[in-house]
Amino acid sequence: MDKPFAITLDVGSSLANKTGSWRTERPVYVDLLPPCSNACPAGESIQQWLYRAEDGGYEAAWRQIMADNPLPAIMGRVCFRPCEAACNRGEVDTAVGINSVERFLGDEAIARDWAMPAAAAATGKHVLVVGAGPAGLAAAYHLALAGHTVTIRDAGPEPGGMMRYGIPAYRLPRTVIDAEIGRILSLGITLESGVTVTDVRAALADGGFDAAFLAVGAQVGKRAYIPAGDSAKILDAVSYLHAAADQAPPLLGRRVAIYGGGDTAIDAARTARRLGATDAVIVYRRTRGQMPAHAIEVDEAAAEGVRMMWLSTIARAESGALVIEKMELDETGFPQPTGEFTTLDADAVVLALGQETDLSLVGGDPAIAVDDGVVQVGADQMTGEPGIFAGGDMVAGDRTVTTGVGHGKRAARAIDAWLRGEPWRPPAQAALAAFDRLNTWYYSDAPATVRPELDVARRISTFDEVVGGLDESNALFEARRCLSCGNCFECDNCFGVCPDNAVIKLGPGQRYQVDLDYCKGCGICAAECPCGAIEMVPEQI
Amino acid sequence: MALQQIKFYQTGSFAVGNRLLDPDQRSVQSDTDRANSINSGHRACQGCGEALGARYALDAAMRAAGGQVIAVNATGCLEVFSTPYPESSWQIPWIHSLFGNAPAVATGVAAAMRVKGRSDVRVIGQGGDGGTVDIGFACLSGMFERNDDVLYICYDNEAYMNTGVQRSGATPPAARTTTTPAVGPEPGNRFGQGKSAPLIAMAHEIPYVATATVAGLRDLEYKVRRAMEFRGARYLHVLVPCPLGWGSASCDTIKIARLAEQTGLFPVFEAEDGQVVSVSKIRKRAPVEDYLRLQSRYAHLFTSPDGERTIARLQARADRNIARFGLLDGVPPSLPDGMPQPRSRNDDEAGR
Q1: In this structure, are A378 and A401 located in the same domain?
Q2: Residues A82 and A138 occupy one common structural domain
Q3: B188: closest CA among B61, B314, B84?
Q4: Residue A144 shares a structural domain with residue A248
Q5: Which residues in chain B have Cβ-Cβ distances shorter than 8 Å to A507?
Q6: Is residue A430 part of a domain?
Q7: What sign does the CA torsion over B88, B89, B93, B98 have?
Q8: CA A208 to mean position of chain CA atoms
Q9: Do A252 and A350 lie in a common domain?
Q10: Whether A499 and B249 lie within 8 Å, measured CB to CB
Q11: HEC-encoded secondary structure of A395-429
Q12: Nearest-CA residue of chain B relative to A484?
């Protein structure tokens, strides 16, 4: 009635027009498995902790690592970073330096003495862990957090296993080992050092344990028969590295040959250089491309002056010299002897031909199957004997610290379920966030921050740490290079690019919601999502 | 190790928002309090570039003018899909009169505001390429020549989409429309002389002329904000892909706009007083074929025997733009002697 001239209707809003009815597909927010996490032997949620680190939330980031892995500072030094090999950013410029950020977070945690997570209420169950290496420590940590009482028995004088006695100090300083292990033990875990478990069943019965996790590692160096003169000096790499760690290194002379092509061979060669060898030569029967040692390690060793002899075997060892036979690869890639010989001056030979496990502690138990020198376990790390689990180097798998930590975590989860009388189920895995799901246009171009390396000349004369850490600004920069594959990082793109205002922004940390009353299903949000966290799903019509 | 300046926010300036930025550095569109000048429920097609471009531009203008904006709309898709009687999607004062007179109506609104002493109220004229480049062109040129205090925004989707995809003066060569079918010796729109509204606007030497696309939100918002800093006639030309008329997938709207820029087919620049002062450099150069293949209006180029030659001609147009405006990094534009070199917009955006 009060309307202006010629106006008969009120102004109506277009909100009356529910354009959502046009839709044949709807956008759905998904959380996918980033390739880094998929590749991580310890199952870390890498994208999530990088996300927390990106805005300086270092403690939250560290806590996210600690949910899976209690050794971030160690991991940040010795992990072979399969995550970085899998990183989607590698296809844009170079992979995110995940490992260096992890190390920064681990070091921050030690420097700032961040408190450990709180343990659950005590369950009254008691678990025996045999071996205080990475697998045993990880299992003990997760079991203690779950509320179980844990006793670790370890044969060595100090805990750490191969982290202490196999990995040289220039790669992993002892202060870092002590700090991270001390923190785990502070959860109320009992450590009995210098105790060798010879019969696990007897130990279980005598101690009143409800379950056991075996992780004694593989510390018996494999020997190869090398015809040798009386005065030839031959020893195995595991003993050599152990002795070096004990500050009682054997005197090998000025020229040392190392036989083998794995990481242990590299460690032994670099250690020999640091202990005064002017010439450390790795003798390997195949080619560099076939070496099991990780490329980074090989490069660092070469930079320190370690020499490599490819396609060579040691035919005979004599005093002061080795007879080397040249090899050649056959059609199948297998090395075959050529009958051609050369001489290599060497005062000693270090055998780095792999390691085996001393399985005497399970020797008498027919239920615990052993095949190819390793204990057989199921997906839940349980042996054939109910309640006895095993992991780390003594079971099949990559023999790395990270793999051990992953075994320890999985075993702890399975032991926890077993103690509660529940079946263990592997955690559900989301679909992989592959590179082709990303819209990389939206990411700034930025190269990886290169870790500062100690001057080579200084490096070979000391056991100082070779690879330096990042400072805070660099670590932040590196964390921000994460593409956040398959997981929303709240960039507001979907909220911005919707022509229909049909994406609702829920606020920091709350992500977004699609207003299905108005979403026409055009799919721009999914196409322009940088990280591939939106999927178009057909409507049921 | 050398000190490294840390100014890196994961997605830089390319995503709409960024939780790592200070709130005052974020885009208008990332703000939950944005004006939403054109609201949900409008009847634009799925994936409409024009609906998106209009919201981007008007929300930025609303922010710059403190919410005091009156929009004058030419006839066209934008008007039709937003205001079917008695509904309106507009959440700002908005007026529609005729197809060809939007710049004149805007002039009138600006005059009325001046008479009322409301210098705080800013006037925006807007329309599609049909209403701007063809039908409303006389009014627009008059508005420029009188230097009326209006920001005129053209949402260019390169044909009369509302009435059924007829060719306009902004339709590019070789594109198929209903009035330029893909038949005969020169299928699609013929290679004419072209009609660049931004360059014609620059010839009026008005205070500010700029181009933008819906793929570059931060750039578009900057240009609206910058335009609002001037008084007098200003012109903004925004490329808005049309899934219906271009025959593209509705989800590819932004991708196609991005390719138009990255191929050099649509140069993005700004000009003050008739001189180019900045250009957006191509970040990831793409051949025109990448752009053409996504659109069925160019499908005949990939089936007819002469297609390859036509694609080469289109590539030559892109290359000419690249040389003329200096769209590649490190390559200055070919300007007459004495003209100052434009700066790179990418440097302005770096580190956002």
Answers
A1: yes
A2: no
A3: B314
A4: no
A5: 32
A6: no
A7: negative
A8: 33
A9: yes
A10: no
A11: ECCCCCHHHHHHHHHHHHHHHHHHHCCCCCCCCCC
A12: B10
Q: Which CATH number belongs to the domain containing residue A312 in this structure?
A: 3.50.50.60
d(CA A230, CA A224): 16
Report CB contact under 8 Å: A491, B9.
no
Would you say the C-alpha torsion A311, A317, A318, A319 has a positive or negative sign? positive
Residue that finishes a domain, picked among A321, A354, A387 = A354
Residue closest to B168 by CA, chosen among B191, B134, B127, B199? B134
pLDDT at B348: 60
Kindly determine whether residue B88 and residue A11, on different chains, have CB atoms separated by under 8 Å: yes
Judge whether residue A458 has pLDDT over 80.
no
Q: What angle do CA A158, A398, A44 make, to 5 degrees?
A: 80
**Tokens 């917009």, residue located:** B345
Cβ neighbors of B97 (< 8 A, separation 6 or more) are B72, B105
Neighbouring CB atoms inside 10 A of B137's CB total: 17
- Total beta-carbon pairs less than 8 A apart between chain A and chain B: 173
Residue of A491, A504, A514, A535 to mutate for B, most B C-beta atoms under 10 A: A491
Average pLDDT (B36-62) is 97
Rounded Cα distance between B54 and B313, Å, is: 32
What number is the ipTM of this complex?
Answer: 0.93
- Give me the domain span that covers residue A511: 14-31+488-538
Same domain, A61 and A138: no
Burial string for B205-231 (b: 16+ CB within 10 Å, else e) reads: bbbbbbbbbbbbbbbbbbbbebbbeee
Smallest Cα distance from B3 to chain A, Å:
9
The set of residues, in sequence order, having a beta carbon less than 8 Å from that of A517 and lying 6+ positions away, is A18, A19, A20, A502, B40
Q: What is the pLDDT of residues A357-397, one digit of tens each?
A: 888 888 778 889 998 889 999 999 999 999 999 999 999 98
Q: Which residues contact B284 (CB under 8 A, 6 or more apart)?
A: A441, B262
Q: Specify whether A499 is located in the same domain as A465.
A: no
The total domain count for chain A is 4
Domain extents in chain B = 23-349
Does one domain contain both A240 and A350?
yes
Contact B10 A481 (CB under 8 A): yes
What is the tens place of the pLDDT at every residue in B180-238? Answer: 999 998 899 999 888 999 999 999 999 999 999 999 999 999 999 999 999 999 999 99
d(CA A39, CA B207): 57
Q: Mean pLDDT over residues A183-207, rounded?
A: 93
Smallest Cα distance from A497 to chain B, Å:
7
What fold is seen in the domain B23-349? Rossmann fold (3.40.50)
Burial of residue A55 (number of CB atoms within 10 Å: 0-12, 13-18, 19+) = middle
- B8 CB neighbours in chain A (<8 A) are 444, 446, 477, 480-481
| B1: confidence class by pLDDT, cuts 50, 70, 90 | very low
How far apart are the C-alpha atoms of B326 and A447, rounded to whole Å?
A: 26
Is the Cβ pair B42, A19 closer than 8 Å? yes
How close B340 gets to chain A, by Cα (Å)?
Answer: 29
Test mutation, A504, A528, A529, chain B, max B CBs within 10 A = A528
